[in-house]
Amino acid sequence: KGEEETTGAAAREYTTEQLEVVRQVKKHTRDYYQILGLEKDCTVEDVRKAYRKLSLKVHPDKNKAPGAEDAFKAVSKAFQCLSDAESRKRYDLVGSDEPVTHHRRPSTARAYNGYYEDDFDPDEI
Amino acid sequence: MGLVFVRCEAVVQRRGLPGRRAVSADLFRRGGRFILQPRLNSSVLGGDSWLSIVVKRGKTSRWCSDADIAIRSTTSKGKRMAEQFYTVASDSETTGEDKSQLSFPDVAIGIDIGTSKCSVAIWNGHQVELLKNTRNQKGMRSYVMFKDDTLSAGVTGGAAQESAHEERDILSGSAIFNMKRLIGRMDTDEVVQASKTLPFLVQTLGIGVRPFIAALVNNMWRSTTPEEVLAIFLLELKALVEMHLKHPVRNAVLTIPVAFSRFQQTRIERAFAMAGLHVLRLMPEPTAVALLYAQQQQQLMHDNMGSGIEKIALIFNMGAGYSDAAVAATAGGVSQIRALSGCTVGGEDILQNIMRHVLPNFDSLYDGHTVDRIKSMGLLRIATQDAIHKLANQESVDINIDLGNGQKVSKVLDHSEFEQVNRAIFEKCEKIIIQCLVDAKLEPEDINDVILVGGCSKIPRIRSLVLGLCKKEVSYKNIDALEAAVSGAAMEGAIASGVTDPSGSLDLLTIQATPMNLGIRADGNNFAAIIPRNTTVPARRDMLFTTTHDNQTEALIAVYEGEGEQAEDNHLLGYFKIAGIPPAPKGSVEISVCMDIDASNVLRVFAGVVKPQGPAIPPFIEVRMPTLDDGHGWCGQALAKMYGKTIDLAVLPKKLQP
């Protein structure tokens, strides 16, 4: 796939290394510290550094492997929470940065699966 | 991907003549629409009609056999044919595979379409290079001249024609400019209202539809649209780049004002598609500057002059049509946009204020758009513009013009008067900078560098205002105020196209943020922001809503963008309905609305019932936004009239996890 799509054809290649870093991030989507590869006692500066480093690896501008975009969204969410003293405190306490209703995750996550393929398929037309 | 295209073969036939021929073309898809664009080397002429298209996939070819397809086509001369709708008729012969065109490096170019000037830059393999036109200009006037049967844009400035355009010609009513201020705006918009004093015709009915725009050709007003004007301009620009690179150009990174609505973005993308360009990334102007800044900081690091500590920059950009502010945190080649803010004031407003000031009966005088009046309006405009430029370097300036018809202007304008007349504009600029600092949770002392860009950054009051707010003596020196945005765009073009540089000069990244709140109408006419402004993109956020009536089986999802607390104060992007909600007491059903912005800045909204669950629940709905094409002011009113509050939603109060 990709051969018939001339747009960004050159940009569609990725390395196994890039795929691996995406997999790593997606493995821990609920643990913000693990996403950024940090310990619980890290400093704000550590959070910022880890975010920059990881962004360069998973941001869709830098990584064309499938799932990179979702991985970056997860990394950003983790950073947003841990870079702010208040939300980090709340996260450390209740394991979540936002008040959530108890059962939303599983159902919504399942419902969205498969909706994100926006690759153009010539078969469609 | 905002706009996807595939190579295809189109079979065309000249009207009234036998014989068919195949030309290669690109088929674009945007939402549910298809747009066919002939490729550069395909000669498609005004009299041609399309017969059929075939999409190639590997070695197999597939005929298109259904659907009305909107076809926009361009001739090699840059004229656009009328849009035709057609139904694919029959199969026909095609030409063989043609892979040779894929061999060129497909690196996106950087384009900065300014309200007044435009520039284009490329990544030449080692660095960013700004291209010059045949008149040796890097900044080319943004306009299109309409003359009899010829159209020519400001890229060449008519240099290829018999005579070059002069400022007088541009202001004669025959040229359309300020496209960036007019594109995607309704006739009730104050920016459109303010454009009615321009030399060409901007006619409004004030009912929330597109304004009527026309250029004077042989003493007749010939209608056009901002998209069309922009597309013609871009065709000339594309030709300039292709002449330089010696290969076709497909992709572009475009800088846009922060204040641009998503609706305006789609219009500008459409103009690009009409010119055969795919917009790979849209970058708010100050964020393109931030990328350039990140590169310079990285360079300092390599030269052992930088510290590697995160640096905070405030970027203020003021052009002819828009002002933008951004706060970026930069380290290790990564520039993270912490806050963005923008408004629709610019040099054009300053110019109009001064024109009104020196000629108090300005508006009544230029109401009629007669040829005489257009001419004297042009004279006043040139003289005023000149005075404003001079005032940047001197204490006061004399304005002396004979406008003809016995009208004369004679005035001495000094700094304090200039500042007095434009006070409201300067206040708006202050507001967006303060907003940016507050949103980024920063004090003026936290800022390391203040970067001033855009044509209006040369105005002394603007400089002192921005530096004063940031408590700085001087601004950042190493950035060219007029070239920074386009340079950043070209750099992003290389990065997003996957170019890597062995010397490491492209190990850069800008992490973008949303400039405006995105959300839906809920709790009456309130606006519930689901993705708040300054959220890092790509992003995905969701929120729970519930019904407002017992046994409510339908719910309206009305998607808005903007800063207003009331839904109506924001831009309506689109709407859809969730049907088949199981009957239940109000407040007991849970409806999840999720918004997703991808790397290409495409917004999708997902919605569906999450409680109760079960096989009777209808599937989720996914909608790409904006879905509205025109007259969005009316749609909101029509929805309210039709449904009232019967299918409203309420925000579900958040419960803490036990």
- CATH level-3 fold name of the domain at 109-280 in chain B: Nucleotidyltransferase, domain 5
Q: Categorize the overall geometry of chain A.
A: elongated
Question: Residue share in helices of chain A?
Answer: 40-55%
> Strands of the largest sheet of chain B, in order across it?
5-4-1-2-3-6-7
Largest sheet geometry of chain A: none
Intertermini distance of chain B: 40 Å
Main structural class of chain B: alpha+beta
Output mean pLDDT of chain B: 84
Q: Total number of β-strand segments of chain B?
A: 35
Tally of strands of chain A: 0
What value does the Rg of chain B take, in angstroms? 26 Å
Structure description:
The complex is a heterodimer of chains A (about 120) and B (about 650). Chain A has about 120 residues and is mainly alpha-helical. Chain A is built from six helices and no strands. In chain A, helix 1 (about 15-25) crosses helix 4 (about 70-80) and helix 3 runs antiparallel to helix 4 (about 70-80). Chain A is elongated and about 40 Å long. Helix content of chain B is about 25%, strand content about 35%. In chain B, the strands form eight sheets. In chain B, strands 5-4-1-2-3-6-7 form a seven-stranded mixed β-sheet, with no helix packed on it. Chain B is globular and about 75 Å long. The interface between A and B is large, with 50 and 67 residues.
Topology readout:
The complex is a heterodimer of chains A (125) and B (658).
Chain A: H1 16-27, H2 32-36, H3 44-58, H4 68-82, H5 85-94, H6 104-112
Helix pairs in contact in A: 1-4, 3-4
Chain B: E1 4-14, E2 20-30, E3 33-38, E4 48-57, E5 60-63, E6 68-71, E7 84-87, E8 109-113, E9 117-123, E10 128-130, E11 140-141, E12 143-147, E13 150-153, H1 167-170, E14 175-177, H2 179-182, H3 190-194, E15 201-203, E16 212-217, E17 220-224, H4 226-245, E18 251-256, H5 262-274, E19 278-284, H6 285-302, E20 311-318, E21 323-331, E22 334-343, H7 347-358, H8 362-365, H9 371-391, E23 396-404, E24 407-414, H10 415-421, H11 423-439, E25 449-453, H12 460-469, H13 484-496, E26 509-511, E27 517-522, E28 526-531, E29 539-547, E30 555-562, E31 571-578, E32 590-597, E33 603-611, E34 621-625, H14 632-643, E35 649-651
Parallel strand pairs in B: 3-6, 8-18, 18-19, 20-25, 22-26
Antiparallel strand pairs in B: 1-2, 1-4, 2-3, 4-5, 6-7, 8-9, 9-10, 9-11, 12-13, 12-14, 15-16, 16-17, 20-21, 21-22, 23-24, 27-28, 27-30, 29-32, 29-35, 30-31, 32-33, 33-34
Helix pairs in contact in B: 4-5, 6-13, 7-9, 11-12
